[in-house]
Specification:
single chain, alpha+beta, endopeptidase fold (from Nostoc punctiforme), 4 domains, twelve-stranded antiparallel beta barrel, seven-stranded antiparallel sheet
Length: 643
């Protein structure tokens, strides 16, 4: 009797409140059966099940009780309050399955538009096809057949500092087809999430991306297009994590990808970004997967990768795909200096293919030179560094000359890095330390939200690349004062080694608050913006990296003379690895402030880091500084923990 009453009242609610709110044309609705389905869904608590929450992209509210959906396209939710009410959305979704919309290129029936929801609800409620007729979903079936899927791979593109949207790296998902192997994976399709914008100004992209100024959308495109963009144009190594999913789990992910293909989210650079949304898609594979709930404030691609790989038995195989630049550098490294000189001259057409310098080499060495030359010319052509008349023709000539040499080339693939990106240190860091500044003892707490600096271990990261965001230093001095010593919004440093073939610019940009000295004797917390540009070089063993930069600096605080200080100067330094666990960085910096508060400051510094395993390190910093005609010495000894 009680169940019948619930069915009856549910039917009344559906009829009075749900149907008038939907702009969907319905076929003949079996209201009794719909009421039964809704009653059963309530009895089973389906709206509270993890899978329904994932399919609706529901997350807990930060302040008040309840949940909200992250999808920002209102058409994604069938109920007027579906974004905030999973139960209402489930019932409206069941009602929508009776729609008589006929599939066309412009529209889909809700059973097909929300095909993952339909499949899951059908599995839970066992729809009676006679009472709820099934749709054929021809468009989805055609799409699925074109993919011909046999598996999924999570792809990680390494960091690219010259693009704000990719400076932490990028993730996407590849659909591996049944008839493809490791050599033909480029022909697969990839599922990508990105901000939908044509913005070319990197600063404006970063600002709008911070505050959700762009819609973010899923798209599917040939994998080779992304490989060409990342590996060839941007020189980013790719890591392919082939996932160990059952056919049913793979199909569930693809069905949900189909659902998301027609909607959009607000794109947020730090949290609801490409990596977060890929996790939200992947976790529908299994009810027990809860990837996204570990990222409340920010989602760094490398961190999201770690969360996936920590899941037991989810990664089947890892494949490394070096960029065109990595491949060219490795081939060039195998050559003698005289052979490298021939490669350089061939690539800029200072040397003809039939020159005696090349023909005098043994066939094996001539082949190595021609192959390295062809790789380097192709790299320059792909990166649009066309400083020769016809680089395509030159590449063909090099290949033709190589074909005339009847020798087999040894395998010269770039070696796989010892540490995969998911095995590096955690991107967040806490440090406890003590030290002395101007003869005053202090204790210090340092916290960094993200991600890596040049003194951290490079295992799993790019050597010479530093990105720090939201880093704060709190100090308590023995004379009783506790204060913020430094708060960095962003601190980016790119030290890319130069040689006769590759000549990247090294640069630095930072913004935040830093203690400084004023003419009235105080140490105000001044807002500062700094920028640098120059060059960096490395030894052949890649154990040392030295650099020279031209610097610009600006500081703003009412306690400074005229309220600000603008200056320029230079800096130079050497980063040297005494051993794999012991890094030393010595540097010198001088700045002349010529506007506002006038001063010539200089600093001579020494930093050391000794690793205590992957997630812990000891750090020692020493600085001898001169500011406003006074000398200041300081040192800090700290214990760092990465997580």
């Amino acid at each position: 009797m009680f169940l019948k009453w619930r069915v009856f009242t549910t039917y009344i609610i559906v009829y009075i409140f749900l149907f008038p709110l939907q702009n969907i044309a319905y076929a003949a609705v079996d209201n009794t059966y719909l009421a039964e389905l809704i009653a059963k869904s309530r009895q089973l608590g389906l709206a509270e099940r993890p899978m329904w929450q994932k399919l609706g992209h529901y997350v807990p509210n930060l302040v008040f009780s309840g949940v909200h959906g992250l999808v920002d396209n209102p058409q994604f939710y069938n109920a007027p309050d579906g974004k905030y009410n999973p139960q209402s959305e489930l019932e409206a979704t069941l009602a929508s399955f009776y729609s008589d919309i006929e599939e066309s290129n412009e529209q889909q029936n809700p059973q097909c538009l929300f095909i993952a929801r339909f499949a899951w609800l059908n599995h839970q409620l066992a729809f009676d096809q006679d009472r709820l007729p099934y749709q054929k979903c021809a468009r989805y079936q055609k799409w699925y057949s074109a993919l011909n899927p046999s598996g999924l791979s999570l792809i990680f593109a390494s960091a690219y500092l010259n693009n704000p949207s990719s400076m932490y790296g990028h993730t996407l998902m590849r659909v591996d087809a049944k008839d493809q192997d490791e050599h033909t994976r480029l022909l697969a399709y990839a599922i990508n999430f990105a901000a939908n914008t044509n913005e070319s100004n990197g600063l404006m992209f970063a600002i709008n991306g911070l505050f959700g100024g762009y819609p973010g959308a899923f798209s599917i495109l040939p994998y080779y297009v992304k490989v060409r963009e990342y590996s060839d144009f941007e020189n980013r190594d790719l890591w392919e994590y082939q996932l160990n999913l059952s056919p049913e789990e793979m199909d569930r992910v693809l069905m949900h990808a189909w659902e998301l293909g027609s909607t959009y989210f607000q794109y947020f650079f730090f949290d609801e970004n490409c990596s977060y949304q890929l996790l939200s898609l992947l976790q529908v594979a299994r009810p027990e997967l809860n990837f996204t709930n570990q990222f409340q404030w920010w989602a760094i691609p490398a961190d999201t990768l770690r969360v996936v790989t920590k899941q037991k038995d989810i990664v089947r195989k890892v494949v490394y795909r070096p960029s065109s630049a990595t491949t060219a550098k490795h081939r060039l490294k195998q050559l003698a200096d005289s052979e490298r000189d021939i490669v350089r001259k061939l690539s800029i057409q200072d040397l003809k293919i039939n020159d005696p310098m090349l023909s005098a080499l043994p066939d094996e060495r001539a082949a190595a030179v021609l192959e390295a030359s062809q790789d380097y010319v192709s790299y320059r052509r792909l990166t649009e560094k066309n400083d020769v008349v016809d680089s395509s023709m030159l590449a063909r000539k090099l290949l033709k000359a190589r074909s005339h040499l009847n020798v087999i080339s040894p395998s010269l693939e770039a070696p796989v890095p010892e540490t995969h990106p998911d095995k590096g240190h955690g991107s967040s860091r806490l440090a406890l330390g003590a030290g002395q500044s101007k003869s005053n003892n202090f204790q210090e707490l340092q916290a960094r939200a993200t991600y890596h600096d040049i003194m951290d271990s490079d295992n799993g990261y790019i050597r010479g690349a530093q990105i720090e965001s939201f880093s704060i230093n709190l100090r308590h001095y023995d004379f009783g004062e506790t204060r913020v010593e430094r708060f960095a919004l962003i601190d980016i440093l790119s030290l890319s080694p130069r040689d006769e073939f590759f000549k990247p610019m090294s640069w630095k940009i930072s913004a935040g608050w830093q203690r400084t000295h004023s003419l009235n004797g105080t140490e105000p917390l001044a807002f500062s913006m700094n920028g640098s540009a120059g060059g960096a070089w490395s030894n052949e063993e890649n154990t040392s990296l030295w650099y020279a930069l031209l610097d610009g600096s600006s500081q703003f605080n009412s306690n400074l003379g005229n309220g600000y200080a603008l200056g320029a100067g230079a800096s130079a330094g050497l980063v040297f690895d005494l051993r794999s666990s012991w890094r030393i960085h010595g540097y010198v910096r001088t700045l002349r402030y010529f506007l506002g508060q006038l001063d010539t400051s200089s600093t001579l510094g020494l930093e050391q880091r000794i690793s205590l395993g992957k997630e812990n390190a000891i750090r020692f910093d020493l600085a001898l500084s001169s500011k406003l005609l006074q000398n200041y010495n300081s040192f800090t000894l700290s214990l760092q923990h990465y997580f």
